[in-house]
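User: I'm writing a short report section on ligand binding and want a predicted complex to refer to. Could you take this sequence and ribose-5-phosphate and write out the structure as tokens? A short remark afterwards would be nice.
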Amino acid sequence: MMSDLIVFSGSANRPLAQGICQWLKIPLGEALVGRFKNGETRIKIEQNVRNMDVFVIQPTSNPSDHHIMELLIMIDALRRASAARITAVIPYYGYAKQEKKTAGREPISAKLVANLITTAGADRVVALDLHAPAIQGFFDIPVDNLTAIPILADELMETEGQDHIVVVSPDAGGVARAYDFRNRVGAGFALIAKHRPEPDTNEVLEMVGDVEGKTAVIVDDMISTGGTLAEAAYMLIERGARQVMAYAVHPVFAGDAMERIHHSMLDRVVVTNTIEVPPEFRDGKVQVLDISALIAQAIRRIHEGSSVSALFEAMRYRQEQLI
Ligand code: R5P
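Assistant: Sure. The structure tokens for the complex follow:
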């Protein structure tokens, strides 16, 4: 059954793709992924894919436009090379924050990207902690939206235990995600109401919940500029939290995010490797958890036609138990 499974990678996060292949015990598919001298993306699939079940790993992280083009062109090449089925595995979905119009004459870029991926020839999509779960509905092909929340919650249980923990959602939009995390660790819950006057800025408004003398654990889907976390941490310390940690899935780390994090009140920041984190960003404060086993297991289940949602039914699990 596994013989016709093949995994390719764009250039966005090859270490993650290699990790996934190690769990699956298959070599990474051979493909040329580069650029022509004029700057255009150049892809060449270097092995036979006829009638094969193909998965392409490509988070559409910064530079998002380039990584999206690589993904689209790779899907096109695979379709023209007669792959039986092509699954776009997008651990971080770029443009996800542009999923609705917030003012007149704005685009819905997340929908446009979904259209492009479908038109290129993808048969299905695997994503992970989509910023807005409704993005699944932007596709008319199957989408599995995996979550790394159990892995993040597990890490907290192993390092801190559940005593004196309050899980904090840094905005109203993240309540369901933070609540899921909270249910897994069995802690208290608080919510910060955040207002964003304009893109990439934020202004904390109010907080509901008690963090006095507690370890506040902020749970979010992504860290972009780091502004949300820095502001939230400041407010939590002001409200009497003993220490503040952050658990987020996607380390976007835009601009001077790392500097902002290091100068913030945060004691510890835990992220995953959906986006490649440069070694210089990993230090005493920032820790990166590997989610390759989770994605490998989802790929295996899709390939074998078994349930993907069953993966998340267990309250807690270790990555080694996934495979
Ligand atoms: C917002 O809705 C998201 O869930 C994150 O809170 C946000 O994207 C983080 O962005 P930044 O790090 O730039 O504040």
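A remark for your report: The CA atoms of residues 23 and 293 lie 6 Å apart. Residues 315-320 have pLDDT under 50 and may be disordered.
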